Amino acid sequence: MLLGTGVLIAYDFTPGHAAGINTAPADIALDPAMPTLVMVVHPGCTCTRASLAALETIARTHEGRLSIHVFASQPRGVRATSIAECRQAVEQTIPVASFEARPAADLNTDFQTDTSGTVFLFSPEGRVLFAGGITASRGHEGDNPGLQHLLESIATGQATAGHPVFGCPLSVSADACIRDQECPK
Questions:
Q1: How far from chain centre, in Å, is Cα 80?
Q2: Strand partners, 120
Q3: To the nearest whole number, what is the mean pLDDT of the chain?
């Protein structure tokens, strides 16, 4: 039993691939007057709920001071209902955010990440002020260093350290996330 618990704990705290960009992708509409926050999510990843909950809090406490975009991956085999449910969740909880679904390969190329829940904060000029995760581990909500670093970047307009991202690979089939009820390895 202890071995099984240890394996689950280790999995919960195993991050996905880190993001590797220094400037905003050319096709991202940056706000010229305020920072732009982008979150990349997998619509079928159960960890996405925790990431969106953190984003909801940020949007509410920084209303009018951030432009927010959520990009949902469309991996091979994703169901249209998964995208629609993700869009609805974003629209209901973060009405100030724009939502767009894109092929997983495009998100991987544009943002150089393959992990759901990756957050980017861009300056109005397109510099990366923050890149990383805003949850403490897979599917867990609450305060954590990544969230604090992001909030510091929002407040100061200066780059801060990133934080590991905990979520499903953007390219995994949606059915794998839903069937397993946890992020596939």
A1: 20
A2: 38, 131
A3: 82
Tell me how far apart the alpha carbons of residues 150 and 68 are, in angstroms, rounded to a whole number: 13
User: What is the edge-to-edge ordering of all strands in the sheet holding 67-74?
Assistant: 98-103, 67-74, 36-41, 118-122, 128-132
Q: What is the mean pLDDT of residues 76-94?
A: 88
Whole-angstrom Cα distance, residue 29 to residue 148? 25
**In whole angstroms, what is the distance from residue 18 CA to residue 28 CA?**
20
Q: List the structure tokens of 39.
A: 């979150």
Distances (CA, A) of 163 to 11, 35, 100: 17, 19, 24
- Which position has the higher pLDDT, 144 or 32? 32
CA dihedral defined by 17, 18, 20, 21, rounded to 10 degrees? 120
Average pLDDT over residues 11-33: 73
In this structure, are residues 21 and 111 in contact, taking their beta carbons and an 8 Å threshold?
Answer: yes
DSSP summary character for residue 169:
B
Residue predicted with more confidence, 8 or 81? 81
